[in-house]
Design goal:
This protein is 30% helix and 27% strand. With 376 residues, the chain is an alpha+beta fold. Strand 1 (3-12) and strand 2 form a beta hairpin. It starts with a strand and ends in a 9-residue tail after the last helix.
Length: 376
């Protein structure tokens, strides 16, 4: 599995300077405003950057001054270093984004590096290459200079990193209102990747039913565990469109998505995301507060799905639920606090909690503010 092992981030929102060690499964806990959502939004920015949509992301995020720690006068740039592991080699990617006219950010430089691994001879890209650009990434000048940079042996490593980042996905399943996209018709052909708000959920399930019956049956099975009254989806395209119809056990009546509770619909979104074929899942699965609206029994099931998904894909989730936290191991948990020097990210040490865990659950320890991550 190709994973992001370490992230160093400076100057982004509430994160002044932080280095975060990442594992296959990462659970963020912390008080409101501690910086959990800011870290999640950074991964969203990485995906947009890798897909050539950085300027659009900046525009819809309140412009660049909203992304810089204490604003551009205090912090004129965002710096990041990403450290990946692929097989026996470590790859590093660095980028610096500088504040520019028009209240935007431009990538001032980037570089890539790969260590030798077990190969006795250094691979291409072993030496750090810095590419100073300081021009808008959407221009032809940037593209031509980037191609010139990639014309040498660094190309393989940089393209691996950028392709990896392009497959990061951040999911928010909070909006289950009557007019939420997941409750509306969607284009049946939009069925390759689950949207961040699950707006194409019906199209995804329709494709899985036709192309990967075992995966579809696993999803239906989990939904039945969480909602015993549920029988199956009834997914019939109407021209180019499809909607999330379903049937109840013991009834021949057809129900629509507006007749699903918010919690049940969120559970369907999560089950589809985590039980779809491995090849359809993103490299990094990021979910903000997946526990919202779920019954305590469902929390156990959903936590198990995350743990199984983390065996073949990297997972990052945030939670405010002590009951949900109880389903994970201490080493999975990153405590987020915020002080005078911005947000900090500290992974729990299981050995230091042994005495506490003999009498209290992990969630109870958090509630007692033993590990931090609570209001001060």
């Amino acid at each position: 599995m190709e994973t992001l092992d370490k992230l160093t981030l400076r100057g982004f929102k509430s994160i002044k300077d932080a280095t975060i060690e990442l594992r296959p499964l990462n659970v963020l806990i912390g008080a409101n405003g501690s910086g959990k959502s800011n870290l999640i939004s950074f991964f969203k920015m990485l995906n947009e950057m890798a897909n050539g949509r950085l300027q659009q992301y900046i525009a819809v995020s309140g412009r660049a001054h909203s992304l810089l720690y204490h604003g551009p006068k205090t912090t004129p740039q965002v710096e990041m270093v990403l450290e990946f592991r692929k097989h026996d080699r470590t790859f590093r990617h660095s980028s610096t984004f500088s504040y520019a006219a028009g209240d935007t950010l431009i990538r001032a430089k980037f570089g890539c590096e790969a260590d030798k691994g077990d190969d006795p001879s250094p691979p291409p890209g072993f030496v750090m290459r810095q590419f100073p650009i300081e021009i808008d990434e959407s221009t032809d000048e940037y593209k031509s200079r980037r191609e010139a940079f990639l014309a040498d042996s660094t190309r393989e490593w940089l393209e691996f990193i950028e392709n990896h980042l392009a497959e990061y996905r951040v999911y928010h399943f909070q909006d289950m209102a009557a007019n939420a996209r997941v409750r509306q018709y969607c284009y049946v052909g939009d069925n390759r990747h689950l949207m961040p708000d699950a707006g194409n959920l019906a199209a995804i399930l329709h494709r899985l039913r036709n192309e990967d019956a075992p995966a579809y049956r696993r999803i239906v099975g989990v939904v039945r565990l969480i909602a015993p009254y549920f029988d199956d989806f009834d997914l019939v395209p109407e021209g180019r469109d499809i909607i999330l119809n379903w049937r109840e056990r013991g009834s021949d009546q057809l129900f629509g998505p507006h007749q699903l509770s918010d919690g049940t619909l969120r559970a369907i979104c999560l089950a589809t995301l985590l039980l779809q074929p491995e090849g359809d899942q993103p490299n990094l699965i990021v979910v903000d507060e997946p526990e919202l609206g779920l019954h305590p029994y469902a929390l156990n099931i959903v936590a198990d799905l995350f743990q199984k998904a983390a065996k073949h894909k990297q997972v990052l989730i945030s939670t405010q639920s002590s009951a949900f936290l109880d389903e994970f191991e201490p080493e999975d948990v990153i405590v987020v606090d915020r002080g005078e020097q911005g947000s900090t990210f500290t992974r729990l040490d299981p050995e230091s909690l042994e005495a506490w865990l003999e009498e209290y659950s992990l969630g109870e320890i958090w509630e007692k503010n033993v590990v931090g991550g609570g209001p001060h």
